[in-house]
Amino acid sequence: xxxxxxxxxxxxxxxxxxxxxxxxxxFTLTKRERKTVTKTLPxxxxxxxxxxxxxxxYAGKWALPGGFCQEDESIYDAATRELxxxxxxxxxxxxxxGVYSTPGRDPRGWIISHAFFALVEEWMLEHRQASDDxxxxxLFTLKEALEELDLAFDHHDIIKDAYVRIQQQMLQTTIARxxxxxxxxxxxxxxxxQTVVPExxxxxxxxxxxxxxxxxxxxQDVRDEEGxxxxxxxxxxxxxxxxxxxxxxPLLSIYT
Amino acid sequence: xxxxxxxxxxxxxxxxxxxxxxxxxxFTLTKRERKTVTKTLPxxxxxxxxxxxxxxxYAGKWALPGGFCQEDESIYDAATRELxxxxxxxxxxxxxxGVYSTPGRDPRGWIISHAFFALVEEWMLEHRQASDDxxxxxLFTLKEALEELDLAFDHHDIIKDAYVRIQQQMLQTTIARxxxxxxxxxxxxxxxxQTVVPExxxxxxxxxxxxxxxxxxxxQDVRDEEGxxxxxxxxxxxxxxxxxxxxxxPLLSIYT
DNA sequence: TAAATAGTGTCTCTTAGACATTATGGT
DNA sequence: ACCATAATGTCTAAGAGACACTATTTA
Lengths: 256, 256
Known about the structure:
- The structure is a homodimer.
- Chain A is α+β, with helices and mostly antiparallel strands.
- Chain A has 7 helices and 11 strands.
- In chain A, the strands form 2 sheets. In chain A, strands 1, 2, 3, 4, 5, 6 and 7 form a 7-stranded mixed beta sheet that branches. In chain A, strands 8, 9, 10 and 11 form a 4-stranded antiparallel beta sheet that branches.
- In chain A, a hairpin with a 7-residue loop joins strand 10 and strand 11.
- The longest helix of chain A is centred in the middle third of the chain and has 18 residues.
- The first copy, chain A, is elongated.
- The termini of chain A are far apart.
- At the A-B interface, helix 1, strand 5 and helix 7 of A face helix 1, strand 5 and helix 7 of B.
- Chain B binds a DNA duplex through helix 7.
C-alpha cells in the first residue's frame, strides 16, 4: 500500500529548478602598515572578494564566487567546499545569509541561489590569485562594490544584504575576533569595529569594555604563567594591555 | 558570440533538485479566559500548528504546512501564498528561517526545503480547520511538538530552530506586538514575553520599561483626544495604563 | 473589608558620559 | 624634552535591583 503510493509518486510531475548554487560574500579586513609613522595602528579596510566571469551569462562582469550544490551534499557543504576551493583553507567564519529566488534573476533558467558570507584573512585570498590564473580576482571596498561596479546577477543586492548583516553581527556578536589575532589591544578592537561600522563611536571605550557588568565576560586580559598581565607596544609608544575573547556570547534584550 | 555561448549552455547538464518547497512554522499564542476567577489575565500558551499528512511519504504523521514553490514566484511569495491558503488571511508576521538541504531528508528525491515562521492569531487557524475538512489540523504546545510527537521529515529540527529564533526575536525586537492588541497593559506584555521565553524574569518590569532611556521610544502611553491617559481594568481590579508600540526598533550592541 | 493587581518610594550600589590628568615609552 | 597613545581620576546624573509601601477597584 505504502509501496504502491511510493511507486505512483512522480517526482518530475512539476517543473523543477535548474540549479541551486551557493554564492559567498567573502569579506576580509586588509591591514596596511603605515611606513611613514612608526608605532601606529595599521590602516584597515573592509573589502569583498569578487571574480570576473569568463562565460555567459554576464561574461566580463564581476560576480561573487560560488558553485552549484550537488545532490550528495547540503547547501552548507557546498558553501564550505567552495570556500575551500577559493582560499585553500578550511577555516574561517562561514555563515548562511539567505536565499535569492526572484524569478528571472538568472538567464540560465530557474536558479535559486543561496548566499553565505565568510570572514577570511587577506593571505587566504592570495592562494586563489596564484592558483586560478585564468580567472581574474579582485578585492574591492564596499563602496566600490556597491556604488561603482556593475555586478552580475543580483549580486549587488546580496552584497548589500551581507554588509548590513556583518555590521549587525559586529555589534551584537563577537565576530570581531575573526579579524583579530588571538591577543589584541583594545584600540585594535575598537579600530576593527569602526572599520566595519563607521558610525560606531564610543569615547570611553576602554573603560566601558573593562568595567561594565553586562559586558564582563566577553573579554579577559592575557597573562603569562606567573599571572602577570601581558602588554604590547607594537602599535603605540606606551605598551597596551593585551586582551582575548572568552567563549561567552552575550545575550541582548531590549527589555532588560 | 554571446548568443553562441548561450545556445551551447545546457541547463540540464547536471542533476537538478526535484523540488523546492516552503514550509511554515505557524506560531500562535492561545488565550484562554479563566472563568473561575474574574479580572485576571487569561492563560496564554505558545502553540504551533501542524497538519496530519495524508499521503506518502510519512502518511499519518504530523508535519508543517507547506507547498512547493513555482517557477514564477520567489520562495517568499510561495510562503506568503501558503500562509494565505492556511489562514485565509493576508496579514501576519512572516519571516524567513533558513534552508534545509541535508541529503536524504525527503524520500521523494532531492528536495530542498525553505522554512519560514509566521505569527498568527488563533482565529486565523479556525479558517483552515473549517475549510480543509479532509486534512486534520492540530495545535500543539512546543513541548508536545518537540518531545512527544513523531514528526515527518526533519520538521522536528525546523521547529526547534524556529523556537530558538522566536525566543531571540521576542527579546531583541518588538515582535511581541504580533501577539497583542494595539493597546495593551504592561502586565499583558510581560505575560506574552514570559510565555514565549519562560526564563525571562524582570521584577521591576514596569519601572524599567517606562523609565530607561535606552528603552524610551519603543513604547508610548495611549491617550485620548484631550490628552488624558487611557487605562483598562479588563484584567485587574485597579485599572492599568494602556501602552502601544511605537515604530522604533532599538539597535542593540554588546559594546555600548 | 479583604483580595488582587497597579504603581510609587526609598535606599544602595553601579554605570554613563564628559573631561582632565597622569603614565609610559619612542624619537 | 616632546610626542603619541594608554590608562586612570573625578564629578554629576541616571539606572539597576531589591523590597516595602500606597492606590484603586471588585467581590
